[in-house]
Write a structure and sequence with these properties.
The complex is a heterodimer of chains A (about 475) and B (about 300). Chain A has about 475 residues and is an all-alpha fold. Helices cover about 65% and strands about 0% of the residues of chain A. The N and C termini of chain B lie far apart (about 80 Å). Classes of the chains: A mainly alpha (about 475), B alpha/beta (about 300).
C-alpha cells in the first residue's frame, strides 16, 4: 500500500481511531492490533512477502533470547554468526543471487569458457533491505549487551514490521524504537498536528517534486544523446531532486504517521543539498543508514582510530557496501566508490566535515554558497551512476555534458524549473527547522489557508501513482 | 468498550479531532464552491458560434480539417478523443439550440480497435479525463470499464481547485509540420491494431457503441452526419489488418442504411502532406478540407 494512495486514506484513519481506543486498554491488544495493521499494510503488495518477514523476525527473536540467556562467549558468537548469516543469506538470495550468477557467467565467457547459465526468477520483497538491517542491528545490540532481549514476541514482531517505516525506513534501532512498544502512547495535540503537517509536506515532496522531476529525469536519461549540454545537466539535477523528494518525502510521511500514533522515529534527512562538503552531505543524507554503517561496520573495523591508510580502507569498505546495499548492479558500486573518493580528502584535513552553520560575514557567505554549489554539483555527478542502467550508460551521459553542439529543444523541461526553484527557496528558509514546514504564519486561519493551497498544489501536480524509488532496495 | 471510547475522548484528542473535522469542512467547502461554480459555467450554452458544420473526432480530424476555408466550419476535435466524449460533446451542442446542420465525425480503422477502449484503462485516460471531465459524469461511465482512480484524480484537479473558465472539451484545429521522415510506422501500426503480437479485438463494447449513439443522436435532431476517413500513407494502408478493412466496410454499410454520409479521400503520397503515416500536416489539411467542404455542399 502506498502512502499517497486512496487506500491509505481509508486505512490510516481507521488504524488511528482503533489504535487510540485500544491504547487505553491492554498493551498486548494494542500491539497485536498494530501488528495486524502492519502485516495488512505490507501484505497488500503481496501476501507471500509476509512469510519472509515472519521467518526473519522469528529467527532474530529466538537468537536474541538465546543470546540474552547465554553466558558462554563462544556460543554467543555462533548465535550472532547464525543470525547474521541467515539475514544476509536471505537478502543475498532475494537481491543479489542473479547479479552473482550473471557476473560469474560473464567472467567464464570472457576467459573463453562458454557457459549458458540462466538466472532465477526471484521476486524481490519490498523493503527487504530495510527490515533486514533493522533486525540485524537488534541482534548485534543484544550481543553487545547494549540492550536487553525482547521477551514478548508480539512486541518484537511489531517492532520489526511497524508499518510507517517498514518498507523504506528510517532503519530504526531497537534502542530507540523497541521500548516505545512497551509503554502506552500519550496523545499530544501539538505532536499530532505536527505529524499531520509533516505528512502533508512529505506528500508535497513526493507528489509534486519527485514524481514531476521523474518525468523529466527519465526523459533526459532515455534521450540524452539527442540533448545538448544544459539539458543533460538539468536532467541530472532533476534526478537529484527526484530521489531527494521521493526518499525524504517517504521519511517525512513515515515520521508524521508515527507521530500521530505517539511514536518517535529518527530523523533521516537534514536538508542534504545545503551541505558544504561531501562529508557533511553524509551527515545529512539517509542518516539512519549512514549511522548504521558507522556503528556496525566502520567502527568495528577500527574506524578512524588507527593509521590513515586503515581509515581510508574502512571508508572505502563502507561506501562500497553502502552502494551495494542499494542494488545489485555495478552502477551502485561505482556510485559508492566515487563517493568514497570524494570523501577521502576530508580524512587528511584537520577540520572535519560536520554540519556547520552558514557563516555570517558577506565574504564567508559567498564562499559558503560556492561550497554548497560545488558539493551539490559533485553529488549530481554521482547520482548519474546511481540512476543509469549501466556503467556505459552513465559514462555516455556524463560525456554528454561536454556535448556543446546546440540542439534545438522545445523547452518542455523548463516548465517545471520555476516550481523547483520555489521549492529550493522554501527549503532554504526552512533549513533550520525539523523538516521544512517550520516557518509558518501564526494566525490559525492563515495557516489553514496555506495548507489548503498545498493540498491544491498536490492535487494539481499529481501524476499516476509512482512507487517510491527506495522500495526496490 | 464504553470506557475505552470515553478514554479516547480525552481533552487533547477531542481538541485534535475537532480541529481536523473543522479543517476538513473548510476544505470541503472550498471544493464545493469550486464545483458549483464550474457546474454553473458548464451549464451555460456551449459556444460554437454560428457554425453550421462542426468537425468532431480525435487527433486525425484535429489535424485534417482547417476551419480557415469556411466561416461556417469549426473544428472542435481533440487528441485521443473517444466516441463517448464526442457523443456528449455533440449532444451538448445540439441541445443548446445551435445552428449546426452538419456534423463531421472522424472514422478511421484505428477507431474500431479495442485500443481505443483500453485508453480508458491506461495512462492515456488521464488526458482523456482531463480534457472531458466537464462532460463526463459518473452516469455515462457507470457500467463501463474505466479507471475510476484516474477519473477521481481528474475530477479533483479540474473541478475542485479553481474555476475552469476555459472549456477544455472544445478542441481546435492544430496545424502541424511534416515529420514523416522520422515517423515510426511499425510503432503506430502496433499501437493501433495489435496487442501482444495478436490482432486487437474490436471496440464493440465501448467506442463503437457510442458511435451508434452519435448516429442515433444526429438522426433525432435531423442533422447530417458525415463519417470522414482522413488520408493515410499507402505504407500505413498496406499494414492495416484485413479484418479491420472488412469491419470498416461493414460498419459504414450499416450506417449508410440509416442515412449517414461517408467521405473518404486518398491524396497523393507526398511527404509534405503528412505529419506522420496516419495524420495530415497543415499542407495536407489544405488539400483535404476544400474537398470535404465540396462534398458537404453537395449534400444540400
Amino acid at each position: 500500500m502506498l502512502f499517497q494512495s486512496y487506500e491509505f486514506l481509508f486505512f490510516f484513519p481507521t488504524v488511528f481511531i482503533l489504535f487510540w481506543v485500544l491504547n487505553k486498554g491492554s498493551l498486548s491488544a494494542r500491539n497485536l492490533f498494530l501488528l495486524g495493521a502492519s502485516y495488512f499494510f505490507y501484505g497488500y503488495w503481496d501476501y507471500r512477502f509476509l512469510a519472509l518477514i515472519l521467518a526473519s523476525s522469528f529467527v532474530d527473536y529466538t537468537v536474541g533470547l538465546l543470546l540474552y540467556k547465554s553466558v558462554q562467549q563462544n556460543r554467543r558468537k555462533w548465535l550472532l554468526f547464525f543470525s547474521i548469516a541467515f539475514n544476509l543469506g536471505v537478502l543475498g538470495y532475494c537481491k543479489y543471487l542473479n547479479f552473482f550468477i550473471e557476473n560469474f557467467a560473464g567472467m567464464l565467457s570472457s576467459i573463453g569458457i562458454v557457459q549458458d547459465i540462466s538466472t532465477l526468477s526471484i521476486i524481490l520483497p519490498v523493503g527487504i533491505s530495510f527490515y533486514t538491517f533493522q533486525t540485524m542491528s537488534y541482534t548485534i545490540d543484544v550481543y553487545r549487551k547494549s540492550i536487553n532481549a525482547e521477551k514478548n514476541i508480539i512486541t518484537f514482531l511489531t517492532f520489526v514490521s511497524f508499518f510507517p517505516q517498514l518498507v523504506a525506513g528510517p532503519i530504526e534501532r531497537a534502542s530507540n524504537l523497541l521500548h516505545q512498544f512497551n509503554r502506552k502512547s500519550k496523545f499530544n495535540m501539538d505532536l499530532g498536528a505536527d505529524g499531520l503537517r509533516q505528512i502533508l509536506y512529505g506528500l508535497f515532496k513526493k507528489i509534486v517534486i519527485a514524481d514531476n522531476c521523474a518525468v523529466y529525469a527519465n526523459q533526459a536519461f532515455a534521450d540524452y544523446h539527442e540533448l545538448s549540454s544544459p539539458y543533460i545537466i538539468l536532467g541530472a539535477v532533476f534526478f537529484a531532486f527526484q530521489i531527494y523528494g521521493d526518499f525524504s518525502g517517504y521519511s517525512d510521511i513515515a515520521r508524521g504517521v508515527a507521530k500521530l500514533l505517539g511514536f518517535d522515529l529518527m530523523k533521516n534527512f537534514n536538508f542534504p543539498y545545503f551541505s558544504k562538503s561531501i562529508g557533511e552531505f553524509w551527515h545529512r543524507w539517509h542518516i539512519s543508514l549512514s549511522t548504521w554503517f558507522r556503528d556496525y561496520v566502520y567502527i568495528p573495523l577500527g574506524g578512524s582510530r588507527g593509521k590513515r591508510s586503515v581509515t581510508v580502507r574502512n571508508v572505502f569498505i563502507i561506501f562500497v557496501v553502502s552502494g551495494f546495499w542499494h542494488g545489485a548492479n555495478w552502477t551502485f558500486i561505482v556510485w559508492g566508490v566515487v563517493h568514497a573518493l570524494l570523501f577521502v580528502p576530508s580524512i587528511f584535513r584537520e577540520k572535519k566535515d560536520k554540519i556547520s552553520p552558514i557563516e555570517v560575514s558577506l565574504s564567508s557567505r559567498v564562499l559558503d554558497f560556492g561550497k554548497i554549489l560545488y558539493t551539490f554539483s559533485l553529488v549530481c555527478i554521482t547520482w548519474v551512476f546511481f540512476r543509469a542502467d549501466s556503467i556505459e550508460h552513465s559514462l555516455s551521459y556524463l560525456a554528454g555534458i561536454f556535448h556543446l553542439e546546440h540542439i534545438p529543444y522545445n523547452g518542455y523541461y523548463l516548465k517545471f524549473v520555476p516550481v523547483l526553484g520555489l521549492f529550493i527557496i522554501w527549503e532554504w528558509f526552512n533549513r533550520h527547522t525539523e523538516y521544512g514546514f517550520g516557518v509558518l504564519p501564526k494566525h490559525k486561519m492563515v495557516r489553514w489557508c496555506l495548507y489548503i493551497c498545498v493540498i491544491c498544489i498536490i492535487i494539481y501536480f499529481r501524476r499516476e501513482d509512482n512507487a517510491f524509488i527506495y522500495f526496490q532496495f | 468498550m464504553r470506557l475505552y471510547i470515553s478514554s479516547f475522548n480525552s481533552l487533547f484528542m477531542k481538541k485534535f479531532v475537532t480541529s481536523v473535522i473543522a479543517f476538513s469542512l473548510l476544505l470541503v467547502a472550498y471544493y464545493g464552491v469550486n464545483i458549483m461554480v464550474n457546474s454553473h459555467l458548464n451549464s451555460k450554452q456551449v459556444k460554437v458560434g454560428d457554425s453550421k458544420i462542426i468537425a468532431v473526432g480525435d487527433s486525425h480530424i484535429m489535424t485534417a480539417v482547417d476551419p480557415q476555408f469556411s466561416m461556417d466550419l469549426i473544428n472542435i476535435a481533440q487528441s485521443s478523443e473517444p466516441y463517448l466524449a464526442s457523443y456528449l460533446k455533440i449532444k451538448k451542442i445540439l441541445e443548446s439550440q445551435s445552428e449546426v446542420e452538419t456534423v463531421v465525425l472522424g472514422l478511421g480503422y484505428h477507431n474500431l480497435s479495442g485500443y481505443y477502449d483500453q485508453k480508458l484503462l491506461t495512462n492515456e485516460s488521464t488526458a482523456i479525463f482531463d480534457n472531458n471531465i466537464q462532460l463526463l459524469g459518473t452516469y455515462e461511465l457507470s457500467n463501463q470499464s474505466y479507471d475510476f482512480e484516474r477519473y477521481v484524480n481528474s475530477f479533483l484537479k479540474n473541478q475542485c481547485i479553481y474555476p475552469q473558465l476555459k472549456k477544455r472539451y472544445l478542441g481546435a484545429y492544430k496545424a502541424t509540420r511534416s515529420d514523416l521522415a522520422k515517423a515510426d510506422l511499425s510503432q503506430t501500426v502496433k499501437k493501433h491494431f495489435y496487442e501482444e503480437e495478436q490482432i486487437h479485438d474490436f471496440s464493440d463494447t465501448f467506442n463503437l457503441f457510442y458511435l451508434g449513439q452519435i448516429v442515433n443522436l444526429c438522426s433525432d435532431y435531423n442533422i447530417n452526419l458525415v463519417l470522414a476517413k482522413t488520408p493515410t500513407t499507402k505504407k500505413y494502408m498496406s499494414q492495416v489488418p484485413i479484418v479491420y478493412r472488412g469491419k470498416l466496410q461493414a460498419v459504414v454499410a450499416n450506417f449508410k442504411k440509416k442515412g449517414v454520409y461517408t467521405f473518404a479521400l486518398e491524396i497523393e503520397d507526398k511527404e509534405v502532406y503528412f505529419k506522420d503515416h496516419s495524420h495530415l500536416s497543415a499542407q495536407g489539411a489544405q488539400v483535404f478540407t476544400p474537398k470535404l467542404l465540396d462534398y458537404i455542399a453537395r449534400l444540400k
